Amino acid sequence: MDDYREVNRANWDERVPAHAASPDYKVAQYEQDPSFIGGVVRFDLPRLGDISGLRGVHLQCHIGTDTVSLARLGARMSGLDFSGPAIEQAQSFADRLGHEIDFHQADVYDAVEVLGEAQYDLVFTGIGALGWLPDIERWARTVAGLLKPGGRLFIREGHPMMWALDGSNHPGLITLDYAYFETEEPLIFDEGGTYVETDVEFTQNVTHEWNHGLSEIITALMGAGLQLTALEEHDSVPWCALPGHMTLDSDTGEWRLTHRPERLPASYTLQAVKL
User: Fold this and answer.
1) Measured between alpha carbons, how far is 222 from 17 in angstroms, rounded to an integer?
2) Domain extents in the chain
């Protein structure tokens, strides 16, 4: 089972330079505008509320753009990711912008050992993170271990219903092809490309992924000693998750089904507090 880490890490390591250079990550806008906040965090500003002065950690932070956004909102941030090149890019990016953010390379399941127990007021997890983890209960225990009593988990993630769909097999049709619930064995994909605009051709294209049902996530958090405080489902996501079936909303910068978007919960925002 540990092999999935090496397979996935190779995929993410190779994509770091392309992501940092892609206009979709908006690195240049962060550098040009000290008040710029990335779209993923901006979408949830009304739900985040005032986080100034909070000690926060961004799990699976990748190249650190959302981590910087949270720091610009006043939180004292750390970031953690299993990709060495991603952490190097994130640290260089934050240092260039003058943000005092400490980034750490580690597997998310090792976060408490690396960062310390009960150190954080806020644990943030951004979109597209949970699908790389085989055990949602272990992840929930990790989150609980990082949070101080009264500390908050804040997560925006792709909806497990959306992750179970495939829009590429039949022209004009979306099919229910993948597991909705967590499975012991991963879904194995061998696909080139990435989710942002780039001309780079990649060689490390195999990934091992898992879905986690919404009730599985909530039950895992409750079992780890967290209390659910908010759950909101959305009909949009920050990237074109179902190519050929989604349209970009220029006002929000999010993608939703072109026809009758109310049919699909495409993402959700979840908040929980450690008791």
Assistant:
1) 38
2) 3-274
- Which parts of the chain have pLDDT scores under 70? 1-2
Measure the CA–CA gap between 243 and 226, rounded to whole angstroms. 36
Q: What Cα–Cα distance (Å) separates residue 127 from each residue in 3, 10, 90, 183, 227?
A: 23, 20, 17, 20, 21
Residue 120 confidence (pLDDT): 98
pLDDT for 168:
84
CATH code for residues 3-274: 3.40.50.150
Query: Residues 40, 193, 31, 120: what is their CA dihedral angle, to the nearest 10 degrees?
Result: 50
pTM of the model: 0.96
